[in-house]
Amino acid sequence: MKIGIIGGTGDIGEGLAHRLSQNHEIYIGSRDKDKACETSECMIKALSEKGISAHCQGVTNQDAVDMGDIVVISVNYRHLESTIKSLTGFEDKIVVTPVNPIGKTDHFYYDPPEEGSAALAIKKMLPESAKIVGAFNNISAQKWKKLDEVLDYSVAVCGDDLASKKIVMGLVEEVSELTAYDAGPLESSSIIESITPLILNIAKYNNMKDVGIKFY
Amino acid sequence: MKIGIIGGTGDIGEGLAHRLSQNHEIYIGSRDKDKACETSECMIKALSEKGISAHCQGVTNQDAVDMGDIVVISVNYRHLESTIKSLTGFEDKIVVTPVNPIGKTDHFYYDPPEEGSAALAIKKMLPESAKIVGAFNNISAQKWKKLDEVLDYSVAVCGDDLASKKIVMGLVEEVSELTAYDAGPLESSSIIESITPLILNIAKYNNMKDVGIKFY
Fold first, then answer.
1. Of chain B residues 111-140, which have a CB less than 8 A from chain A?
2. What is the pLDDT of residues A171-184, one digit of tens each?
3. Which residues of A64-73 are buried (b: 16+ CB within 10 A; e: fewer)?
4. Where is the Pyrroline-5-carboxylate reductase catalytic N-terminal domain (chains A, B) (predicted)?
5. Is residue A199 part of a domain?
């Protein structure tokens, strides 16, 4: 599949690209195309040293949308609206969001927009034919970056279009040892996104690092 | 410790009582004292057959509040307000809430009151000196009932009074193989409670039973 990653030079984008570029064509998008190319070249080199041929290219964020059958929005929540509104061409795309709106005082808390979640806000901003799927929300950026480390967490996947959800669940299961769980409609995204500030609090208050989650 | 369980004849109440009555004095409360006594006697007998001496007594819900140093509110959310408002004497008590406000259409969803969570609603209803602690929210009733089965889940514990929270975390860790995690202030209760409809959805959409959660 062709996977365009908006904000692909960030931890999640890079981590996903690294783990999927053997079997899929990855378009690492960025506002800064040079940075995207640099990230892509580094990745190809690092994987080549392990005997893995990576199908990867650095592009603009718009190219990542245009070229991807699946588009991953790998940006920080505070840049979400401005990023999405600068792009077009989402019609009929599967759009994957790992975005979590988080606030912080002396602890972390869930701080969603009025739509109820980042995923529901994205749905509102995009054409009706775009199929929004929430996934990869609760895996720490630090874990994504550790490219040789096994990721054996559970990933709750939610969305209103079943076929798109199943495709994304398949993609999740290609990444390391992640296990995908259908978590129901896109409305579930508020709960799934809110788990991220919860596990950040658990890390903080229990002296843990990079806390993840498993359902079983 | 003396633990009063309001609604102690329900699955969670009975399951907790069964697993804690060896080391603590358990007061199984009910609106129906006869039912509480019957549950208590059954439990004493069942544990005695395993060579365990249970410290357990059936009482009214009001007695459970009066006698407990720790009071567990083991009632369904729809009965929460009427139950709490029928009781007095919560001053200075540690009050543990596993209550989750859940709605259901073709899927489960989180349906909190205006206060933001069941725990925050309880805090509002009780005297200021009562110390509310959220715990045991995400363990399925069916698992509680299987009295010989090991429970090896993670339990997120939240509350504003650190000492009370630590006491409850200690109690959690006495139950089977549960692991307690400090999840921060009582405000975290909305996220923790919402995990329950999420895991109910995961069970529904993935043909699983009694889904639980682990943080690691």
1. none
2. 999 999 999 999 99
3. bbbbbebbbb
4. 2-101
5. yes
Query: Is A216 within the bounds of a domain?
Result: no
Q: What span, in angstroms and rounded, lies between the C-alpha atoms of A69 and A90?
A: 10
Query: Is B210 part of a structural domain of the chain?
Result: no
- ipTM (interface pTM): 0.95
Please choose, from the candidates B201, B44, B53, B73, the residue with its C-alpha nearest in 3D space to the C-alpha of residue B134: B73
Q: Given CB atoms, is A190 within the 8 Å cutoff of chain B?
A: yes
In this structure, are residues A204 and A108 in contact, taking their beta carbons and an 8 Å threshold? yes
pLDDT band of residue B97 (cuts 50, 70, 90) is very high
Q: Amino acid identity, residue A171?
A: L
Residue type, B205: Y
Using pLDDT thresholds of 50, 70 and 90, give the confidence band for residue A124. very high
Put simply, the answer to whether B206 touches A181 (Cβ < 8 Å) is yes
Structurally, how many domains does chain A consist of?
1
Q: What is the CATH number of the domain that holds A139?
A: 3.40.50.720
B147 to chain A, any CB pair closer than 8 A? The answer is no
Kindly give, in sequence order, each residue whose CB lies less than 8 Å from that of residue B89, ignoring residues fewer than 6 positions away.
B62, B65, B66
Span A36-91, pLDDT tens digits: 999 999 999 989 998 989 999 999 999 999 999 999 999 999 999 999 999 999 99
Domain that holds residue B69: 2-205
